[in-house]
Amino acid sequence: MPELPDLEIFAVNLEKRFKNKTLEKLEVIVPKRLNVSETELKEALEGHQLQAVLREGKTMQLHFGGGNVLGLHLMLHGEIRLVEKDDQVKFRIIEFHFKGDNSFALTDFQKMATPTLNPEPSEVPDALSKDFTITYLKELLSKKKIQIKTLLMDQHLIRGIGNTYADEILWHTRISPFSIAKAIPEKKVKDLYQGIEEVLRKEIMQLTRAIPDSFNAEVKDFLKIHNPDLKHSPTGHEIKIDKIGGRKTYYTDEQVQYNL
DNA sequence: TAGAATGTTACAGG
DNA sequence: CCCTGTAACATTCT
């Protein structure tokens, strides 16, 4: 479900709660989702401490002692759920049992959330990483004839932005989501570049305060556009709803549409 | 109650 | 082969 800002917070909070705890037992409920055998996964992780939880694109990476990393992708509906003693959580994919009755599970009613042992490092820049540069964005846009929103959401091009924050970023920069990428003037591409970082970082700051402990809350409080409860943008313009790539898209007529 | 849901990918068509 | 757009995945919630 979540995008970059949410996952950033979840990773921090998960680390806060489970750092330095030893993984006593790993329970695999849906082995089909693994990239290695159940045995291999258990051998790699069981008995080791959780040293860090980091966000990478739309995944969280659990770093364990022994040098192994487990990537977790939540996909559309996946969640990290705390499991209380003797509690049965629905839709589990895998469950982590730490020493001292501390457990959490990766769940997904759609069974699509994916644990990956030692994921390959990606070549694609994360939206908040140093290698996501203005030069990279300019070059990328100049080559693409697709709508800008589709481009922002393509994880093979930029990692971390999804349906919600694509809308937020595009409203923030006053660019219509229907704009064709290569038609956007260079000056506006710079706004877009800055807007991506501004919107994401501000959201991370606000979520940090709002959910200091949660690793699954869905907080819509700070969204300005992509929120069905809102009728108007902060500047008083009517929010319109349309579809791009089968996905709901929120925008206003404050946003300029650039076409070829 | 039918449709939408903060995602990804296989596949079709150009 | 490259580029782009669409449908499907399974279940819950409104």
From TrEMBL:
<keyword id="KW-0227">DNA damage</keyword>
<keyword id="KW-0378">Hydrolase</keyword>
<dbReference type="Pfam" id="PF01149">
    <property type="entry name" value="Fapy_DNA_glyco"/>
</dbReference>
<dbReference type="Pfam" id="PF06831">
    <property type="entry name" value="H2TH"/>
</dbReference>
<dbReference type="InterPro" id="IPR010979">
    <property type="entry name" value="Ribosomal_uS13-like_H2TH"/>
</dbReference>
<dbReference type="InterPro" id="IPR012319">
    <property type="entry name" value="FPG_cat"/>
</dbReference>
<keyword id="KW-0456">Lyase</keyword>
<dbReference type="InterPro" id="IPR035937">
    <property type="entry name" value="FPG_N"/>
</dbReference>
<dbReference type="InterPro" id="IPR015886">
    <property type="entry name" value="H2TH_FPG"/>
</dbReference>
<comment type="similarity">
    <text>Belongs to the FPG family.</text>
</comment>
<dbReference type="GO" id="GO:0008270">
    <property type="term" value="F:zinc ion binding"/>
</dbReference>
<dbReference type="GO" id="GO:0016829">
    <property type="term" value="F:lyase activity"/>
</dbReference>
<dbReference type="GO" id="GO:0006284">
    <property type="term" value="P:base-excision repair"/>
</dbReference>
<keyword id="KW-0238">DNA-binding</keyword>
<dbReference type="GO" id="GO:0003684">
    <property type="term" value="F:damaged DNA binding"/>
</dbReference>
<dbReference type="GO" id="GO:0034039">
    <property type="term" value="F:8-oxo-7,8-dihydroguanine DNA N-glycosylase activity"/>
</dbReference>
<keyword id="KW-0326">Glycosidase</keyword>
<feature type="domain" description="Formamidopyrimidine-DNA glycosylase catalytic">
    <location>
        <begin position="2"/>
        <end position="113"/>
    </location>
</feature>
<dbReference type="GO" id="GO:0003906">
    <property type="term" value="F:DNA-(apurinic or apyrimidinic site) endonuclease activity"/>
</dbReference>
<keyword id="KW-0511">Multifunctional enzyme</keyword>
<protein>
    <submittedName>
        <fullName>Formamidopyrimidine-DNA glycosylase</fullName>
    </submittedName>
</protein>
<keyword id="KW-0234">DNA repair</keyword>
